[in-house]
Amino acid sequence: MVLLSGGIDSATCLAIAKVDGYHLNALTFHYHQRHAVEIEAAKRVARAAGVARHMVLDLPLGQIGGSALTSDMEVPKDAKLESLGNRIPVTYVPARNTIFLSFAMAWAEVLGAADIFIGVNALDYSGYPDCRPEYIEAFEKTANLGTKKTVEGELMIRIHTPLITLTKAQIIRRGVELGLDYSVTHSCYDPDPAGRACGRCDSCLLRRKGFLEAGVPDPTSYYDSR
C-alpha cells in the first residue's frame, strides 16, 4: 500500500516499493486541495508503475479549512530556503497524514496488506510535524493496536519511510537510478489554471533546489520562476 500524491517523494517511494518486489496498491486523496492537478499526476505515476489497484478517495477537508491548501488563504511565496523547516507554515493541513494513514490502514486491513509506504521526509521539508520519525513510530503502534487483524494476530502492519533521512537531491538521484520520469510528477502548491508550477512556493523551491543539487535537469514547467 503506497500513499501516492503525485509528487517527487511519493513517486520515488512507489518506485522503491516496486523494485523491492512488493505487489503494488496505491492510494490517492482528493482532499479539495487547491493543487488538485496533482491527482492527475498521481494517476500518471501509478499507470507508469503498473500498480494493481489505484484508489482515489474524496475527502472534503476544505470544509474544515485551516490551511492555505484547502482555503482561500494565500500560499506563501519566495521564502528563504534556509528558513524552511524552522516553523510550521500555513500550508500545513490539520492532521493530514493521520487522516491519510488511517484510510491506508483500513484498506490495508481489507486487502491483507502488511506494508504501508509513505514518502515523508525529515530533512528537506517544510516543517510539518506529521513527517517526523517519532510520529510515524507512534502511528505504526496505533495501527497495530487498533485493527481486527492485528489484534487477532493475522497481520502486523509496518509503515515504511524509505526517504525519511534523505535530502531532496538524494531522493531525486535515487529515482533517476530507478528510471523514474519526474516530468509526470507535480509538486506546486499554487499552480496556474494550465497546471504549470508557480516556481515560488515552498514546495517549488525545494523541488528546484533538489534538481539543482542532484545535477539533474528539472523537467518542470514553471510559469513564474523569478
Could you tell me the CATH topology label: Rossmann fold
Helix % is 25-40%
> Please, what is the average pLDDT?
93
**Shape by Cα distribution:** globular
Radius of gyration: 17 Å
Number of helices: 7
CATH superfamily: HUPs
Intertermini distance: 38 Å
Widest β-sheet, arrangement of strands: 1-2-3
What series of H and E elements makes up the topology? EHEHEHEHHEHH
Short description:
The chain has seven helices and five strands, in the order βαβαβαβααβαα.
Description:
The protein has one domain: 3-Layer(aba) Sandwich (Rossmann fold). α1 crosses α6. It has 7 helices and 5 strands. It starts with a strand and ends in a 12-residue tail after the last helix. α2 links the parallel β2 and β3. The mean pLDDT is 93. The chain is mostly helical. A 3-stranded parallel sheet has the order 1-2-3, with helices on both faces. The protein has a two-stranded parallel ribbon with strand order 4-5. The longest helix has 16 residues.
Fill in the keyword field for this structure:
single chain, 226 residues, mainly alpha, Rossmann fold, two-stranded parallel sheet
List the helices and strands and how they pair.
Layout: E1 2-3, H1 8-19, E2 25-30, H2 37-49, E3 53-58, H3 96-111, E4 115-117, H4 133-145, H5 148-151, E5 158-160, H6 168-177, H7 202-214
Parallel strand pairs: 1-2, 2-3, 4-5
